[in-house]
Amino acid sequence: MRQSARRAPPSEVGFAGRFRLWLAPGMRVKRYIAMAVLGGIIMSVAVVASAIWLLADARNQLSGPIERILVTEAWSRVGGFASVAIVLAGATMLTRSVVQLNRSLLSHWMPHPKEAAVLLHRRLQLSRGPRVVAVGGGTGLSNLLRGLRESTSNVTAVVAVSDDGGSSGRLREAFDMPAPGDLSDCLAAMSDQEVEVSRLMEFRFERGKELEGHTFGNLLITTLSEVEGDIAKASRVLNRLLNLSGAVWPVTPAPVSLVARKEDGRVVTGETSIRESEGSVADLSVLPDGVPAVPEVLVALKSADLIVLGPGSLYSSVLPSLLVDEVRQVINETSAPVVYVCNIMTEAGETDRFDAFDHVQAIHRHVGRFPDLVLVNRTPLDSARLAAYELEDAEEVKVSVDRFNEHGVQLAYADLLGPGRFAQHDSERLATTLIELAEASRSGVAIA
């Protein structure tokens, strides 16, 4: 798979590069320059015609000097070059005038109007990207979004809102609302000002009796939910406010809780309790039944070129969104390819001893269909990471090719392991692979 090139920040693009971008295809600047040139020619012809009409019989006084120049030996030698030079000089002046006019107009809205060409060109390029819907939550989804937003702005994140621990759990209990935590992380990951927005959204209060332990992002979403009426309306405001390269939506505006039946038959309620309870999950459901989906989620799913499930915790991030009835129905009816990004490691309390097909089989059992393609990491894990995860009762997810072949589920391997001490997917590599699949789907090429 090809690797995406690093995009140069707008401040690193020189004058020549910015000038070239103004004239790049799709910027809709060349057509207006051509109109300005045509208008200038028409105006010049009109001025000459007016002068001839005004001079009447004395018009030879205007044409005579011009004719004498045109028949000189010097003009015959360099006249063509001089004409081209004058045309180029005029075109350059005209183009620079248009650029400066744009800067002058944009200076009222942008702090660095010189970067307008770079930013506008990037927006136009990203707007032509494939439509990708990513379903999940937690670190896995926000990590994926950071990669996807570099290739397309037609990304929709569908976020699970069933978390009941930490700051999210306290706010859920106090305001009877869906969990805002994963939503906050994804909003920060999708913002064009990610560094600044992340610092703000992830800031955790360490003092103040009522505020201690809460993040600013969670409080912001809660405040907007109270002002607007629910978390879906609050998300509409935040999608506009944070200048996202795509959209981030909670799967449902209703507060939901997870109910899991463990392999030994025990029934456990609540996401935190499910994780802390030993043993893998056999079945999962949400309470209450029949909660509505956010309308924008259904629209995005129906128009997607590619639907991505994961990466992330199978039972606490991926499946909760798919258990909303309207979402499950669209997933079963869609003609868009559905790709599952398999976790690299198992998770204690959720997928103990699961291999890759066990993950896929759980999706089929709860949703009613297999993914069209399952994406698996093939980069070997180092011993240090394996040892660290062993202390958490987690192990590398194995792949049994025969089980996939038996059920006709397509497998794809890629080098997806990211750097660092955790066994997480590399956001750029994963996004590049998924964008290629989405572009193939948009072109009508089967991916499985």
Furnish the topology, listing elements before pairings.
Blueprint lengths: L14 H8 L7 H26 L4 H11 L2 H34 L9 H12 L4 E5 L1 H11 L6 E5 L6 H10 L5 H10 L3 H8 L14 H13 L2 H11 L5 E4 L6 E6 L4 E3 L1 H6 L4 E7 L7 H8 L3 E4 L4 H9 L2 H9 L4 E4 L14 H12 L5 E5 L5 H8 L10 H7 L2 E5 L12 H16 L6
Parallel strand pairs: 1-2, 1-7, 2-3, 7-8, 8-9, 9-10
Antiparallel strand pairs: 4-5, 4-6
Helix pairs in contact: 1-5, 6-8, 6-19, 8-9, 10-11, 13-15
Output the keywords.
disordered N terminus; 3-stranded antiparallel beta sheet; 19 helices; 448 residues; Rossmann fold; alpha/beta; 10 strands; 7-stranded parallel beta sheet; 2 domains; 11% strand
Contiguous runs where pLDDT drops below 50 for at least 5 residues: 1-6
What percent of the residues sit in helical stretches (DSSP H or I)?
40-55%
Main β sheet profile: 7 strands, parallel
CATH class placement of the largest domain: Alpha Beta
User: What would the CATH topology of the largest domain be?
Assistant: Rossmann fold
Instruction: Give the CA-CA distance, first to last residue.
Output: 16 Å
Strand order of the largest sheet: 3-2-1-7-8-9-10
What is the count of DSSP helices, taking H or I runs of 4+ residues?
19
